[in-house]
């Protein structure tokens, strides 16, 4: 996230140099509001939970607070400074100014999405403010978290990619004659290509309302028992659960958090998987290193 906030501040500054302070003002304000709301919700959830965040998470929480404060207050300060200065330092072509505007919108959306991940998704998936999905499976218990994960990723992706089409439509509005036709054609082609490439984002947006596969689901897939540990715009990732092992040979579970997943279910696969009703959550009794985002994994939030 350090890279995201750095790029956002550079984008704010570039827009201010071009003589427009709205991106810095609104972008900085959006980051500041999102950071305050999400951080406050996270702190409240931690206070209500009998669990306490692990030390490695606490240290990184402080860093993330600095990041969203820097992005929010930095953007507002840049906007105020540009307003007091009044004039553009550089007068670039309109297309360059618009690229700066669209790029700023995209990076702000991505950064806010990462804040949702940090303060809302990961504390729940990692078992910081409630039992993790590997500890307590069961469909509707994870419907909201799964839906929010799908939703905010899809929205951020669509905003970032849609900014390209917006750029071309805006250019077409101010163009004339053949140039206007060319810009409209380019916008149409770009929009169609964007929708085609981002079909997964659109599917995720629809699935967020009622996800058929949820975090923690215990499923049977190609003869293996698996547990869903992650969702994304490409579907859901799972870890394969080992067959019951001989007590003298250990549990069969990994000894450390080696990989985030063993495979992936695409959206089309969701219709074919079956619940493994005879399987219990892998970490119900003790941590088995199944969930990479677990509070017990010091590398989970790096």
- What characteristic shape results from the CA principal axes? flat
Overall pLDDT metric:
84
As a percent range, the share of strand residues is 5-15%
Q: What structural class do helix, strand and pairing data support?
A: alpha+beta
Radius of gyration (Å): 23 Å
What's the number of extended β-strand segments?
A: 5
Helical coverage, percent range: 55-70%
Order of helices and strands: HHHHHHHEEEEE
Distance between the termini: 10 Å
Widest beta sheet: strand line-up:
4-3-2-1-5
The stretches of 5 or more residues where confidence is low (pLDDT under 50) are 245-250
Number of helices: 7
- In this structure, how is the largest beta sheet organized? 5 strands, antiparallel
Write up what this structure looks like.
The protein has 302 residues and is an alpha+beta fold. It has helices spanning 2-17, 22-48, 55-85, 94-125, 143-174, 177-197, 199-207; strands spanning 218-221, 224-232, 235-241, 263-265, 274-275. A 5-stranded antiparallel sheet has the order 4-3-2-1-5. Helix 5 (143-174) runs antiparallel to helix 6 (177-197). It is flat.
């Amino acid at each position: 996230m350090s890279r995201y906030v750095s790029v956002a501040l550079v984008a704010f500054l570039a827009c201010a140099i071009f003589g427009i302070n709205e991106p810095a003002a609104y972008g900085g304000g959006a980051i500041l509001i999102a950071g305050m709301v999400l951080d406050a919700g996270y702190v409240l959830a931690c206070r209500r939970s009998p669990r306490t965040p692990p030390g490695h998470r606490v240290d990184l929480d402080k860093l993330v607070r600095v990041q969203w404060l820097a992005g929010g207050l930095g953007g507002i300060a840049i906007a105020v400074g540009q307003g007091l200065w009044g004039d553009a330092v550089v007068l670039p072509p309109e297309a360059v100014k618009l690229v700066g505007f669209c790029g700023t919108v995209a990076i702000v959306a991505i950064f806010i999405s990462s804040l949702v991940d940090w303060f809302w998704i990961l504390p729940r998936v990692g078992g910081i403010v409630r039992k993790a999905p590997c500890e307590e499976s069961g469909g509707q218990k994870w419907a909201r978290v799964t839906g929010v994960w799908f939703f905010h990723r899809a929205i951020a992706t669509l905003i970032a990619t849609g900014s390209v089409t917006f750029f071309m439509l805006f250019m077409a509005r101010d163009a004339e004659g053949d140039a206007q036709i060319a810009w409209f054609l380019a916008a149409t082609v770009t929009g169609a290509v964007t929708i085609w490439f981002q079909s997964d984002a659109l599917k995720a947006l629809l699935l967020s309302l009622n996800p058929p596969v949820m975090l923690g689901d215990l499923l049977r897939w190609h003869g293996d028992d698996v547990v869903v540990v992650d969702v994304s715009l490409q579907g859901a990732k799972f870890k394969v659960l080992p067959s019951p092992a001989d007590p003298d040979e250990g549990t069969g579970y990994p000894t450390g958090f080696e990989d985030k997943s063993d495979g992936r279910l695409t959206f089309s696969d969701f219709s074919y998987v079956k619940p493994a009703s005879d399987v219990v959550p892998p970490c119900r009794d003790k941590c088995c290193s199944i969930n990479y985002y677990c509070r017990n994994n010091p590398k989970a939030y790096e």
